[in-house]
Amino acid sequence: MPTYTPPLKDLEFVLHEVLQVHESATPGYNELDRDFTGAILEEAGKIARDVLTPLNTVGDTEGCTLENGVVHTPTGFKEAFDIVRDGGWTGLGADPEFGGQGMPYVLGASVTEMLVSANLSFNMYQGLTNGAYEAIHTHGSDELKATFLPKMVTCEWTGTMNLTEPHCGTDLGLMRSKAEPSGDGTYKITGQKIFISAGEHDMADNIIHLVLAKIPGGPDGVKGISLFIVPKFIVNEDGSLGNRNGVVCGNLEKKMGIHGNSTCVMNYDEAEGYLVGEEHKGLRAMFTMMNGARLGVGLQGLAQASVAYQNALGYTRERLQGRDVTGIQNPDGPADPLIVHPDVRRSLMEQKSFVEGGRAFILWGATLLDAGDLADDADAEGLLSLMTPVIKGFLTDKGFDMTVQAQQLYGGHGYIEETGASQFVRDARIAMIYEGANGVQALDLVGRKLASDGGKHVLAFFDLTKTFIKENEGETSLKADFLDPLKAAAKDMQAAAMYFMSEAPKNPNAALAGSSDFMHLFGHVALGLMWARMAKAAQDALTAGASDVAFYETKLATGRYYMARSLPETALRLARITSGAEPVMGLAAEAF
Amino acid sequence: MPTYTPPLKDLEFVLHEVLQVHESATPGYNELDRDFTGAILEEAGKIARDVLTPLNTVGDTEGCTLENGVVHTPTGFKEAFDIVRDGGWTGLGADPEFGGQGMPYVLGASVTEMLVSANLSFNMYQGLTNGAYEAIHTHGSDELKATFLPKMVTCEWTGTMNLTEPHCGTDLGLMRSKAEPSGDGTYKITGQKIFISAGEHDMADNIIHLVLAKIPGGPDGVKGISLFIVPKFIVNEDGSLGNRNGVVCGNLEKKMGIHGNSTCVMNYDEAEGYLVGEEHKGLRAMFTMMNGARLGVGLQGLAQASVAYQNALGYTRERLQGRDVTGIQNPDGPADPLIVHPDVRRSLMEQKSFVEGGRAFILWGATLLDAGDLADDADAEGLLSLMTPVIKGFLTDKGFDMTVQAQQLYGGHGYIEETGASQFVRDARIAMIYEGANGVQALDLVGRKLASDGGKHVLAFFDLTKTFIKENEGETSLKADFLDPLKAAAKDMQAAAMYFMSEAPKNPNAALAGSSDFMHLFGHVALGLMWARMAKAAQDALTAGASDVAFYETKLATGRYYMARSLPETALRLARITSGAEPVMGLAAEAF
């Protein structure tokens, strides 16, 4: 049975020593001192470790079941949700006007990482509610907000997002669900939505569906899509629950993983719905929600890698097999622990350096989100918008890879469900797919974000990388191990961007053929920058005479691994990118 | 429901135009003309497509069940096994003296690829029998051979391999299973073995377990291990089945995939066993079997990638989503098929070029195995021995990656079990683990094989690569696209080998830290060589005026993708390798 140790010290290191949140001018950040964040993270960590972790295997094994239209969640989920609700964790980042605690996103992301490491399936019930809350909060009328948000903040009512239809995934223009005006300001929603996470379950009094549908007579394609609230139970004027609405769960999907979350086919049959925002402007409203959601999914990739790594590490320390080639390490035992073997160590370092670098990347992104939201910092918002597909795509691709590497360390025991290593792989796999498959993230990055606002945001990224290198080049302890590799990697990224700029106007495929490679190239440079910043923080702490020397030395050694062995991938990505469209598109579609 | 199209033309291209098996001097190869291989492959392909493919989902969904010591295989497996047996497919490569057909391994591997693509779990019942047959055939006494082999050739009796114990995986020296001499030449075998594939099932009259155990009083560690035959039912003098032996299946493991194969905990309680080969020389006997078995597992990685690719390709042709950025391709439809999108195309090319390159690599390896076995060609044997960990490790690592890429092309539909994409991923995953986890393959490659016989075999590999390049450098059509990239990649491999040679004597960890990287580097160079040879064959066919121009043009375009976009990974692997031991081992085990 897997265990989980909340990475409190690592989270605090990033928050306080790398990002220095407490010194930030972003409104609300002045509250984020070490005492405050320490208390919050410790409490959240306990829930993750003690309440949610033991339910992760249960969720995987039991799954959800559909009986007469009712979805039963796995044993213990409801009780755990009550604990999470009672602790006020569901409204951590929500608007105090509706009962939330108004905490910055960077703190919420830190908490969420732990909850997701402990139990991804479970956390999705709350995560989707937060997303739906966000869309209503930003685009809904005051009346809708007053009616729905307070109960969603507490998760007494949970939320969903309904986009996909059987024939319509990424290409939302193909949508068929209809919304007929009823004449009284409400709409009748009819259609079928699929892959609706938490679409139906037994853990909340009401479920608030956010549904994209087309109002007849509107424009074709995505321009004719509107966003609606469709509650499972109609809410009466006094806030009590009234009739069952015309929406039912038609089926539960059998999935590779996240068995503890109910993935529903939702059938809408003239269900009563309320317009959120303006008619035909539904996509814009949905996109608001998506940026946060994509960050959240990137976080899932990281969180699953983190817990998978922890458990694999434990296994390599306990499992005795073979002897250290340089000399026996465990003379009293029949063999040495797996961790002595160089290829095992390589795998552990790869996982550890990714997890810690990725954590810093996510939390940096969270500070940008806060700066945009709370301080109206358009530059921060623009940079985050550029990096969102990287956070989502790179961290989930790599996060999945890391769960596979973690599983590998168990040998045959990793393939057996008993150890839980397989579940991390199977659960992490979804993060590469939902909220826009990673190929779509790459397309968004290269086809849209890279050149947006005249390329301003990518230039800003290059600038801050250059500035960091320049400001610290005097530190000989950092130069060879951190700054030089970062400089080389950033140069590869610039060369790739230049290639796109010169080739794309002639042939868009020349850029798009390298889009996934660029997403990974960018991801590596971003993690390289994070490691350089973490190394600087660690070096500063050591210089200042910090007592926990081992902690900072470990950070430096972990960062050196990333810079020496992971970051050089940028050159490969650049080579692939500059090979252009021909190798990729040279074979006609019908010739495959 | 997934489908499967046997890759007959691709197999024949490799056999006849690339490897030119019919012209080989290896005994038995003179029979392998196009007519003969064509007939065999077509028949095997039909069984794969029509009999085994439909059972793949059944096997995954139903799995195996244990009831009162009896393991029930999934619906239809037994009937399908009868078809395979009746067709004589189980004895294709076996010695005619025991009822086999004595066909070269290269033909058997071609057949097996298709059977494994269709249904990995199913094929394992036969594959393990072949492995056990091999060990008995090579090391058993005439009496044992006469008693057991004829029924194993026909798979009336199936076989197993019993190595692993709960505390003892790769490190066989830790083995506890005991074999006490009974005084009559037989032994009493006692102990517990785990992860025993096909350990118990209802598809054969008898199960012949090959079991490693220690005879009390023998040397410690691996030098005290002996190999025994332990039949499920004792075989009477007249060949009829007698008493049930003291071996039972104690449990079935719940696994990530290959649900259709029974993975058993086997409990031996004074079971009657017969020594195979000499006392304490069991490991050597087991290793004989392992080389073939590792080739077979490499083939599994490739085979799963192949079928996953085929199905993903079909999906990308049918699924309409979005529009080609260079112009609408399907004006009468609501959207263009997925295959128009560059990142989709990139993924398909990556899969296709791996599968076709990997197939050539495996079949080349098979010709070396035949040359060693049938023509006593020690050089061929040595080269194959060097490449065996690469075939196993590289093809299964990459094979798994490709199934993940295939699954990704389905978007959300790939995560749902219904499409079968998830099963290919889950099934392919085991190939990276069993028959020596890939980290162990890398260790075998760098720690043992690379320097064996004074490095003779790796020099032979370099030589044949150089010779091929030299002989064809005049062909301008090949030079820039194939020969130059191959030369650069081979140079990276040489540099890596040089690094190991100079550093390993000072610090073995400097080599072992780069062992997985070297395995991948080698794999890419090998596939680069295969693609160069395939390109040459395609070019020759075009020059000779072959009628199927499209087939050869497609080969060339696919190869160009591999050379331009996959092969450059060698430089990254070299960079990682030459970063040495420090980044990997710099963090002490207790500091993680």
How would you characterize this protein structure?
Two copies of one chain form a homodimer. The first copy, chain A, has 592 residues and is α+β, with helices and mostly antiparallel strands. Among the domains of chain A are: 8-136, Butyryl-Coa Dehydrogenase, subunit A, domain 1, CATH 1.10.540; 157-280, Butyryl-CoA Dehydrogenase, subunit A, domain 2 (Beta Barrel); 455-585. Helices cover 57% and strands 12% of the residues of chain A. Chain A is built from 19 helices and eleven strands. In chain A, strands 3, 4, 5, 6, 7, 10 and 11 form a seven-stranded mixed sheet that branches. In chain A, strands 1-2 form a two-stranded antiparallel ribbon. A two-stranded antiparallel ribbon of chain A has the order 8-9. The longest helix of chain A is centred in the middle third of the chain and has 37 residues, at 282-318. The two termini of chain A are 45 Å apart. Chains A and B meet through helix 8, helix 9, helix 10, helix 11 and helix 12 of A and helix 8, helix 9, helix 10, helix 11 and helix 12 of B.
Which helices and strands, and how do they pair?
Two copies of one chain form a homodimer.
Chain A: H1 8-18, H2 34-62, E1 65-67, E2 70-72, H3 77-86, H4 105-118, H5 120-139, H6 142-153, E3 157-162, E4 178-181, E5 187-197, E6 206-214, E7 225-231, E8 233-235, E9 241-244, E10 247-252, E11 263-276, H7 282-318, H8 342-375, H9 378-408, H10 412-415, H11 421-429, H12 438-449, H13 456-472, H14 476-503, H15 508-512, H16 515-543, H17 549-566, H18 569-578, H19 581-585
Parallel strand pairs in A: 3-6
Antiparallel strand pairs in A: 1-2, 4-5, 5-11, 6-7, 7-11, 8-9, 10-11
